[in-house]
Every structure is written in C-alpha cells, then in structure tokens.
C-alpha cells in the first residue's frame, strides 16, 4: 500500500513537472516569434501584421507574451494606418510594463496609449501619457523611436496651443534625427518647427527652419507632397511679413490637385497676396475659385475675402452684403462645431460604458479562472484517495472474477465445440443447397433446350435456329428460374438498374448462363453488330462500368 502511494506521488510530480516544462517551452517559443515580428516591423509593417494575425489563440497568452503581443499589434495597426477604436488592447501592455524595468517598451506602451487617446479626442489623457512616455524613455538609446515620440508629442502640444512647449519637443525630435542621420524625418520636424515659429510670430526663425527643410527635401527625397507643404508655409511666412511677391512665388511652386482642399487654401493665399499688392482683378479670380457651396469653411473665407475686396474697390453696399453672408456662415459653423462637441462627449460617454462593461467581464472571467483553479487543485488532491479506494475494490473484485472465470472457461470450451460443429453443418447445408439449385437449374427443360441448341454445329444452327428461338413465355419462365436459383438475380438487376430494357435483360440472363455471343444472336434473332452495340450500351450507359479492366460477362456472372 505504501509503495503504491509513493508511485502515485512520483507520477503526479512527473506530470506536473512535464506540464510546467511544456508550458515554459511554448511560452519561450511564442516570445521568439514576437521578437521576429518586432524585427520586421520597421521595414515591412504589413508583413508584421500578417505574422501577428497568424499566432493561434492570442487570447490565451499570459504575462510577458500577452503584453508584448498587445504592444506589437497596436504598433502594427498604426503603421498600417488602421483605426484603433479603444484602449483595451494597448492598456494591457501599459499595465504590464508600468511596474517593469524595460524602459523602452514601457515608454512605447505609453506612447501608443497616448496615440489612442488622441484619436478618441481625449487630449488631456493623451498629453499625460506622452509625459509618462517621455519620463520612461530617459536613458533610452533608440534614437528613431525618441525622434518619433517627441515629434508626435510636439504635434499634440501645437494643436493645444502651448506653441513654445510644442516647439521645444520639435527641437528635441530634430536633435535625435540628426544623431540618427534620418534626413527624411528631419524634414517633418523642420516643417512643424517652422509652423510653430509662424504661430509665435517669429518669422525669421520660421523662414530659417522652412528653408532648411526645403533644401534637404530638394537634395534628397523630392517628395511632391512635402515640397508643397514647405512652399505653402513659406508663402504664409512671407505673407504675414508683408512680402506678397515672395509669397506668390512659393504658392506657384505648389503642386496640389485641382479641386482639392490644399489647392483651395493655396488659391485663398494667392487671392490675399494679390489683394495686398492691390491687384484686385487677380485677387477676385482666385477668390472665386475657392467658392464651394457645400463647404462651410470655404464659403466663410469666400465671403470674408469678397467683403474686403469690395471695400478696397469702394463698393461698400456689396461689401456689407458679403459681410452679412459671412455672419450667417459664422453662425452655421459655430452651430456645427457645437454639434461636433456634443457628439464627442457622447462618444466619450459610450466609450466609458464599453470600458466599464469590459472591466466587469474581465472581473467575471478572473473569478471563473480562480474557481476553475481551485477545482483543479481539489481534484488533484482527491485523485490519490480515489485511487486507493479503487485499488481495494479492485482486489476484492479480482478474487470474485477469478472464480467466475474458472467456471466460464469450461462453458466457453463446450460452446466453442458446439459453434464449430454448427458452422460445419451450416457449410454443408449451404454447399448442398447450391448443388441442389444448380441441379434444378440444369435439369429444367428450357435450360436443356438451350444447351441442346448450343451443342449443335453451325450448319444445324443456321438451319434450325427458328425452332429454337425463345418465346415470351419461355423468357418469363427463364427469368423466374434465374430468380429462384440465383438469389433473385433478375429482380436485383431491375431494381438496381431500372433503365434496362426487356431485350437487355434477356442479354444479361444469357450472359449469366455463359452463352456465347453467336448463340445469343440466334436465340434473340439479332445480328452480331447489334449485339455488340447492345452490350456496349448496357456496360457504359446502363450499368455505368467505366473501368476497362472488368468485362460485362465477368460483372454479370459475379453479380
């Protein structure tokens, strides 16, 4: 009894150790797969997203793998320009890395959490997460990530209008990009730095940053979109500084598509520049181009600029009419923005409801997991007890079964002898029945009549075939005889192959009786070619025998 308990404990320990080792191996394998995904994320984000989606059962990941997967999946969504509708995924990574020592992934978690909050319209929480990401990134050597972090942080600060703080983040971003030697990314930083200087009314500094960005873009990348943005902001800088001709020069360098929003902004700036140069006809031409009845912002600018042009022309009555239209569009735009603000608050409220529901479901899931774990532990503890009871019951049952077995062996031997004798008798009866059926079939007058005809010579067959031709009654008798002596042969054929005609049934019966083709032609009164065509049609169309290795005669004889 003690030895069995020791064996049970050893087996349980081995099972626990084996399960833990397997779990550790799977955990490390998934972690290596996630590291491979991170290596291709920068150059091929679409491939990284595809690899992440191929990971089986991501909802079953735990701990480090779960947080790592959540971080990489959110990063892949943003790099592939896919929308992220809530923070439930990246929150997993942020909560895990918040108390860890991995500063880079901790900072990345807060960075992408800030991006999610920014897209959801929660600017306060987004700025807080950017601040945490910056604090967590202290001492980090990944200059590419640091440049990206401070660039997006500066963009959000610029939108919230602390322009000087946003400008400081752009300077830090540009510093890391210079260390990295990333010219293409530097152009983005210089563009936003120039815009911040414009908003701060420091036009000389804005001109310096935008000119440097334009020079780098012309030298290396020559991207039409970035060149147009730089020219447009330089034009704004010159316009605000009163240099209208220089502004027009840069506006003419822009390459926006006709009818697009950037093209309308460029036309508006051209209209303002020509107005500053007192070239009112040219200004009127470009102001008319921005007129869009379905765009409130465009109509707002159109009426405002038209009112100013009419005042310059001395047409004050028309200027007042345009100004009244401008006031109406201001009211409409204010009403629309109020509606958008209400919709944002509604969206935040709905989001909070969804988040609370997710927290409730998560709590319920954790409770279920705890109950399941307790049940498993109880079952593991009860297994040795049940096994001991089972062994005691098994010993008692074995002694009883041993006695029963001895009694049953004698009965089995006698039954086996009787079964063998019964089988032998059945075989003899089956053999005798087959012989009897064959004798009955062969002794039938009609069969003898057909055999007599088969034994005749060819001359006698040609001379006497009309007297041996079978009548309808003969065929009915032959079919009845085949059914009775060969296990309902004809009935089975008609049931399984209902498309067989009467003459085709007759051919099948004669082939089953091993009658040769020439004799079948005499008995049925048909030609040899007609018989061949009938046989081919029976085989392929009626019996569906596509296999060339089996003949029609073999199939009918074995059917």
From TrEMBL:
Residues 398-435 form a coiled coil. InterPro entries: TPR-like_helical_dom_sf, TPR_rpt. The chain crosses the membrane at residues 370-393. Keywords: Coiled coil, Membrane, Transmembrane, Transmembrane helix. This is Tetratricopeptide repeat protein. It comes from Phocaeicola coprocola DSM 17136.
């Amino acid at each position: 009894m003690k030895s069995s308990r020791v064996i049970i404990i050893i087996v349980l320990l081995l099972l626990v150790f084996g399960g833990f080792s397997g779990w550790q191996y799977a955990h490390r394998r998934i972690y290596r797969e996630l590291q491979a995904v991170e290596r291709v994320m920068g150059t091929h984000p679409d491939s990284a997203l595809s690899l992440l989606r191929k990971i089986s059962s991501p909802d079953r990941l735990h701990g480090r793998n779960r947080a790592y997967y959540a971080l990489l999946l959110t990063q892949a969504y943003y790099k592939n320009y896919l929308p992220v509708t809530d923070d439930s995924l990246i929150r997993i990574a942020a909560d895990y890395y918040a108390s860890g020592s991995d500063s880079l992934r901790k900072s990345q978690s807060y960075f992408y959490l800030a991006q999610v909050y920014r897209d959801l319209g929660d600017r306060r929480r987004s700025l807080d997460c950017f601040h945490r990401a910056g604090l967590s990134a202290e001492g980090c050597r990944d200059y590419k990530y640091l440049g990206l972090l401070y660039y997006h942080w500066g963009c959000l600060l610029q939108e919230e209008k602390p322009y000087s703080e946003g400008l400081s983040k752009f300077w830090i971003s540009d510093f890391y990009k210079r260390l990295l030697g990333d010219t293409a990314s530097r152009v983005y930083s210089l563009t936003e730095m120039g815009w911040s200087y414009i908003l701060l009314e420091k036009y000389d500094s804005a001109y310096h940053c935008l000119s440097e960005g334009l020079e780098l873009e012309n030298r290396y990348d020559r991207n039409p979109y970035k060149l147009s943005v730089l020219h447009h902001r330089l034009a704004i800088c010159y316009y605000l500084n009163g240099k209208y001709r220089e502004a027009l020069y840069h506006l003419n360098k822009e390459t926006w598509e006709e009818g697009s929003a950037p093209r309308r902004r460029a036309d508006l700036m051209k209209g303002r520049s020509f107005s500053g140069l007192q070239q009112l006809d040219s200004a009127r031409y470009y102001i008319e181009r921005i007129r869009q009845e379905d765009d409130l912002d465009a109509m707002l600018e159109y009426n405002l600029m038209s009112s100013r042009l009419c005042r310059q022309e001395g047409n004050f009555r028309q200027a007042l009419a345009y100004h009244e239209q401008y006031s109406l569009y201001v009211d409409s735009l204010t009403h629309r923005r109020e509606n958008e603000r209400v919709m944002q608050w509604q969206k935040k409220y709905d989001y909070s409801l969804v988040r609370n529901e997710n927290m409730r479901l998560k709590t319920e899931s954790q409770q279920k997991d705890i109950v399941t774990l307790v049940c498993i532990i109880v079952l593991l503890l009860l297994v040795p007890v049940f096994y001991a009871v089972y062994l005691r019951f098994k010993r008692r049952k074995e002694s009883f079964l041993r006695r029963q077995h001895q009694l049953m062996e004698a009965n089995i031997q006698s039954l086996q002898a009787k079964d063998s004798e019964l089988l032998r008798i059945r075989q003899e009866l089956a053999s005798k029945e087959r012989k009897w059926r064959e004798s009955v079939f062969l002794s039938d007058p009609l069969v003898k009549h057909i055999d007599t005809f088969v034994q005749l010579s060819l001359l006698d067959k040609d001379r006497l075939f009309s007297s041996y031709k079978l009548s309808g009654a003969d065929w009915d008798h032959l079919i009845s005889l085949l059914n009775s002596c060969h296990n309902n042969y004809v009935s089975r054929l008609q049931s399984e192959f209902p498309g067989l005609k009467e003459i085709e049934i007759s051919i099948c019966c004669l082939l089953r009786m091993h009658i040769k083709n020439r004799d079948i032609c005499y008995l049925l009164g048909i030609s040899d070619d007609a018989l061949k065509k009938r046989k081919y049609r029976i085989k392929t169309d009626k019996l569906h025998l596509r296999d060339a290795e089996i003949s029609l005669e073999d199939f009918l004889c074995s059917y």
